[in-house]
Amino acid sequence: MKRMVLGFSFCLSLAACGGGPREYSRASFNGPLQCAPYARAKTGVALYGAAASWWRGASGKYRRTQSPAQGEILVFRSTGRLPSGHVSVVRSTVSSRKILVEHANWEPGRIDRSVPVIDVSRNNDWSLVRVYWAPIKNLGSRAYPTYGFIVPRDIDDIARLQETPDHAM
């Protein structure tokens, strides 16, 4: 019986290795590169913990808004797909419903820049978004709930941070 259990365990471990290079498990999002430390390094905010907790943590420290601007931090809510939430830094505003962001670990282990994010909320308040997914070279099919944007600093500070190299993390 013990041999059968060990053999079955061995087969399961081999099966776990069989995924192709573009197949991600939820565990792959827990590697050394994470969105929160990346956003903190790019913006200089003094917020810590799970990305979704940043919205509450910003209360009384940073201004929060429902409309995007360069250098602001988009905070994603915690969901089944994003148990810790997610944060992205706005690079530019394209239109009232489209921004370009940079973020770490949306695609596991990568830093992505100039990533399209589209507001799909009914009230154009950025409470629900779709994000470009590089493996399919298109917007992802899922919509993600967000809290809004944290304004990290004044415009002069943001301009200086744009010149900061990524290795500042």
UniProtKB/TrEMBL annotation:
<dbReference type="Pfam" id="PF05257">
    <property type="entry name" value="CHAP"/>
</dbReference>
<dbReference type="InterPro" id="IPR038765">
    <property type="entry name" value="Papain-like_cys_pep_sf"/>
</dbReference>
<protein>
    <submittedName>
        <fullName>CHAP domain-containing protein</fullName>
    </submittedName>
</protein>
<feature type="domain" description="Peptidase C51">
    <location>
        <begin position="10"/>
        <end position="130"/>
    </location>
</feature>
<dbReference type="InterPro" id="IPR007921">
    <property type="entry name" value="CHAP_dom"/>
</dbReference>
